[in-house]
Amino acid sequence: MKYIARLQLAIIAVYISCIPGYAIESYELQRKQMIAEIIQDVVETSHYLGIKTLDRKVLHVMSSVPRHEFVPKNNKSNAYLNHALPIGHGQTISQPYIVAIMTQLLNLDSTSVVLEIGTGSGYQAAVLAELAANVYSIEIIEPLAKQAIIRLDRLGYKNVKIKHADGYYGWAQHAPYDAIMVTAAASHVPPSLIKQLKPGGQIIIPVGSRFMTQQLLLINKQENNKLTTRQILPVRFVPFTGDH
């Protein structure tokens, strides 16, 4: 019944978005519905997450970043549905719930310097940029990297820097990082990312293959450089790519 109710709300939101002159109001309504579903999903998975609610600052960012600006034109009516959407080149923009919890678990503040592996459309980078001082993001697919640079610049995200490269090796120039987020599933945690993480910092990364259960891991680097790993919940991400 819960699924049917959500589907009905999504259909209504899409219908409203087609009414001439109602686009802005429609996005606002859809965004509110998205936030409501994220909150509900957090409650339902609280036994995995170890939290029952998201921080207000994370909810505020999720409700203010215009997700419809980060999806292809032919999918804008679906921008605020609470699931992943294709963005071309075999890649996706992550489910809003996943974006929210990954962001929350990094415990960012206004002084944080963050490395993101897998820019994609730039949506997650925009969310991070609202909370952190600087975000450095790497995208291996050149057309996506170029599009994200233009998009984020147009939307005014001046504290995000993007480069086209293989994220497996990180971005040593701006290290060490307070937090690192990986948005593609890897078979293991790249050693270069561990090295570029500041003591006291955290990495959040999905680990596993496309055809097996992936687990979202939160890795803490202690002040003595020892690592502790916490398994958060099962997830499904596109695979990490590159020559390694």
Describe it for me?
The protein has 244 residues and is of the alpha/beta class. The chain has 8 helices and 9 strands. The chain has helices spanning 2-17, 23-44, 46-49, 56-64, 96-105, 123-131, 142-154, 191-196, and strands at 85-88, 91-93, 113-117, 134-139, 160-164, 177-182, 197-207, 214-221, 227-235. A 7-stranded mixed β-sheet has the order 5-4-3-6-7-8-9. A two-stranded antiparallel ribbon has the order 1-2. Helix 6 (123-131) links the parallel strand 3 (113-117) and strand 4 (134-139). The chain is globular. The chain starts with a helix and ends in a 9-residue tail after the last strand. Residues 11-22 have low confidence and may be disordered.
Number of domains: 1
In helices, the fraction of residues equals 25-40%
Unreliable stretches covering 5 or more consecutive residues: 11-22
| CATH topology-level name | Rossmann fold
Sequence of strands across the biggest β-sheet: 5-4-3-6-7-8-9
Number of strands: 9
Calculate the terminal CA-CA distance, rounded to whole Å.
45 Å
Helices and strands, in order, run as: HHHHEEHEHEHEEHEEE
Shape: globular
Question: Beta fraction of the residues?
Answer: 15-25%
The top level CATH class name: Alpha Beta
Task: Briefly note the structural class of the backbone.
Answer: alpha/beta
How is the main sheet built? Answer: 7 strands, mixed
Number of helices: 8
